[in-house]
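Format notes (please read before filing issues)

Several people have asked whether sequences and structure tokens are stored in separate files. They are not. Every record keeps both together, in the order shown below: the sequence lines, then the token lines. Line labels are part of the format and must not be stripped during preprocessing.
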Amino acid sequence: MIRIRPSRPEEAQAQKELWRKAFGDEDRYIDWFYECCWKPEDMLLLLEDGALASMLALLPMEIALPGGKTASAYYVYALATDPAARKKGYGRQLLHYVDFHLRARGVDCVTVVPAEPSLHKFFATVDFQPGFSLRKLELLRNMVAQPGAGAAQPVEPAEYGRIRDGLLEGLPFIRYGKELIRYQQGMSQMAGAGLYRVEVDGVVGCAAAEYVDAQSLLLKELVIPRPQMAGAVAQLAALLPAARYHVRTPAAWDGLPGSYIQSFGMLKWYSQAKRAAWGQGTHGYMGLGFD
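Then the structure lines:
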């Protein structure tokens, strides 16, 4: 028998074991999520004959709409199915339950970041549509400019969020709460980097960075106006040495030479009024995404 329901406080360890089996993540990454983000009522479980077979987390966030209004949103994260229970459609069943669960709570929409390009088609089959894009660029170390006036230094989540939200004001974008930015901070630190305040020629921006491997640094997001982007990359490269840098910036802004726009997150609306305020064909900025 299949049953889907929100989780209970005493079920955290079973969820961690399923997470480990499904994704192969280290315990420290899993434990960090449960310390920062886990709320039993926001973890949905699919039980097969009483045993945990599949699950997903719902992370709360806010969407800044065009025109200054906002929409309530949740982000589908860590959709995990026991390898022994795959190909039974359990992930799809959980996603349909998400719609029922969030509509009942009066939530305006739900978002997701597919873990790989092929999954965009899967999420489209359950009515998610493209909703967020970003701009990407890869630079070798010898392509990075020399640092100019300014500095890059670690910053705490509250300050990071203040800088980020101020710079993105006027754009359609995801606004993360302090807990989710703290989650990103911990993941970045475990990957050898962190969250940064970046100042270039008196202009302040922010960046979240992670080492992908010993030679590659990912700037998961760099939020600073276009004239200061090259200088910001240079400041971060001076602080975080690597052979190559992968840089992600808001798609709505002009990027550095050679950058290109790529689809990122997907969106499903429950509120028709908020869907209309978002507008047909709008692509917002999601940034972190915890991908």
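For reference, the curators noted about this record: The mean pLDDT is 95. Residues 90-104 form the longest helix (15 residues).
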